[in-house]
Each structure stands twice: as C-alpha cells, then as structure tokens.
C-alpha cells in the first residue's frame, strides 16, 4: 500500500512539473466563432493540452473557440497552428489538436463555449478536461489527465488511464473508470458505476436519489455517503 501511495504521488508531481515546463514557452492565441446547430455534436481530440468546455447560453447560435498554442520556437508555433483543424459536418463539429513531430515543448490549450448540445465527446492524450453546465451527453477519455465535471444535465461516461475524476451534481446516470486515480461523485441522483484499480472512490447520494450504486476499488478505499 505504501508503494502505491508513493507511485500516485510521483505521478502527481510528474504532471505538475510537466505543466511548469510549458510556463516559459512562447504563446500565440486565436479566437473564433463558428455557427453551431442547436442539439449538435461536438467532437474534440487533443494530443497534448487542457480542454475546458462550458455551455454559454441556450439561445446562443455560435460556438466560440479560444486556442492557446505553446512552443519554444516561433517556427514550432507556426507548425503547431498548421496541425490544428476544425472540420464542420451537417450536425457535428470536429476539433483536432495534433502535435507535430520533434516538438516536445508543443501544447494546445482549448477553451470552448458551446450553445445547447446533444453530445460532447473528448479524447485527450496528456492534459486535463473540464466541463461545466452541459445539458447534453458527456463522453470523455484521457490517457494522462484529470477529468472534472460540474452541473451536468445529461448522462456521463468518462474514463482516464492515469488521473482523478471529479463529478459534481450529475442529474443523469454516471459511468466513471480510471486505472490509477481517485473518483469523487457528489450529489448523484441516478445510477452510478465507478471503478478504479488504484485509488479511492467517494460517492455522495442526493436526497432525492433514485438508482443503483456500483463502486469498486481494487487497491483503495470505497466510501458511500
């Protein structure tokens, strides 16, 4: 157990030092509004960098993308921007942040303001994912990074290989899995499935909770309140 605690602590410190390594890089910024159909689907893929998605307004007709590119060299910034893609489909928008070869300092941070959505899907390689006030379905994956969700109205399905998962005030069913990391779910109203191989799980039921709770930690503590 002591070795597991040391392992988790080393991962936290590694993630922290990775964030600090980008502090001194050069940056460029773009901001763009994109027409987005009501009840559309947003699909975000980001290899390295944080993703933050907030629902702005039910009446909004545009999706706003704020992008910060990080790189040590000006030429790498240009290459990084060329690897950033937006693909508009009939009822779906794909946003892709890819890292060019031989660019270890490259990173793309995304902040996206969305109107009412049917579904949001994200896949992050290295970086944290934050969601707030989302009405539609959330499906989020990360290899290394934390996933945090606050005040969601739709079903949630999240998975990370290494990282913590925090979900606050979910109105619908929740499915959360991590290989190494803690899971915290507060004010759950419906079904909850939470599993971690190494880490603790904490689930707090709302007063009006109606559903089943299924939680499992192979190495760690599971708490239901």
Strand coverage percent: over 45%
Number of helices: 2
Number of domain units:
2
Terminal-residue CA separation: 24 Å
CATH class of the largest domain: Mainly Beta
Overall pLDDT confidence: 89
Let me know the largest β-sheet. Answer: 10 strands, mixed
Number of E strands: 19
CATH architecture of the largest domain, please? Answer: 3 Solenoid
The low-pLDDT segments are: none
Rg to the nearest angstrom? 18 Å
Strand order of the largest sheet: 1-4-7-3-9-11-13-15-17-19
**Silhouette:** flat
How would you spell out the order of helices and strands? HEEEEHEEEEEEEEEEEEEEE
Could you please say which CATH topology of the largest domain applies here? Pectate Lyase C-like
At a glance:
This protein has 225 residues and is mainly β.
